[in-house]
């Protein structure tokens, strides 16, 4: 069991969040993963442990088995104990390096915060990288990123370290000089944007590529606008307006987080 917890900690954490939903389909919408991704994670755990976690005999929507619920609860107890002990050890420590992830449309605000983190003292190395939304959430939930600049809370869960930064308008862009559908990787994989039948589709995780294509070759696509400071996030992130958040992981330094809450942008 110790080996399982150490080698499959991320997969078990995904299971522990997914198990509260009645089936795989419902869970996938709330844990920040696609249904095929979640299915592969469950299959890996089943192969590792040698038990059935998902009852696939149901014709339409597979349900969780009792052992899946017990496994998730066992992992959560271990995780809570570990988190409590680690918090006691590092809660007041000042880290010397941070790994930060951001969406490309939020790079300007991410750079502003990164510079202020350096000025706050203590941090000697910042690793700042750009991801699409699926990658950003996956790496953050796996523990590969300490801070993220994003437009929603990964996995639909509540985080202790979170700051609402403002609101971003997603604007429909159209250049009639070309007949193309321009999409981000996330828009394409999630089905948020549909291409007109017969229209060539360009999919890119680079905002710069999508902007340049629309400007030079034409087409239609959705592009994020500037971040506007607001006190509260929009009621829903499915419309044209979406909230912008800075989120730190559960073990983020409390000393540094208090400083970040005072940063201007």
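^ structure tokens above, recovered residues below v
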């Amino acid at each position: 069991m110790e080996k399982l917890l150490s080698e499959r900690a991320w997969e078990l954490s995904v299971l522990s969040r997914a198990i509260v939903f009645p089936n795989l389909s419902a869970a996938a919408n709330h844990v920040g993963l696609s249904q095929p991704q979640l299915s592969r994670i469950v299959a890996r755990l089943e192969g590792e442990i040698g038990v059935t976690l998902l009852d696939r005999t149901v014709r339409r929507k597979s349900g969780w088995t009792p052992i899946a619920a017990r496994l998730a609860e066992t992992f959560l107890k271990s995780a809570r104990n570990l988190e409590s002990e680690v918090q006691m050890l590092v809660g007041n420590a000042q880290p010397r390096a941070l790994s930060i992830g951001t969406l490309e449309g939020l790079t300007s605000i991410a750079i502003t915060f990164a510079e202020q983190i350096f000025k706050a003292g203590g941090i000697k190395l910042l690793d700042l990288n750009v991801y699409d939304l699926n990658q950003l959430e996956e790496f953050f939930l796996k523990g590969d990123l300490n801070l993220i600049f994003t437009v929603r809370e990964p996995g639909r869960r509540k985080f202790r370290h979170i700051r609402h930064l403002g609101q971003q308008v997603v604007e429909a862009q159209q250049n009639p000089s070309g007949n193309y559908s321009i999409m981000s990787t996330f828009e394409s994989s999630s089905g948020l944007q549909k291409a007109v039948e017969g229209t060539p589709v360009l999919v890119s995780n680079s905002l710069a590529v999508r902007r340049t294509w629309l400007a030079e070759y034409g087409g239609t696509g959705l592009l994020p606008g500037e971040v506007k400071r607001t006190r509260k996030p929009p009621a829903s992130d499915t419309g044209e307006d979406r909230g912008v958040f800075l989120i730190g992981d559960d073990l983020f330094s409390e000393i540094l987080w208090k400083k970040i809450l005072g940063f201007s942008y």
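The radius of gyration is 21 Å.
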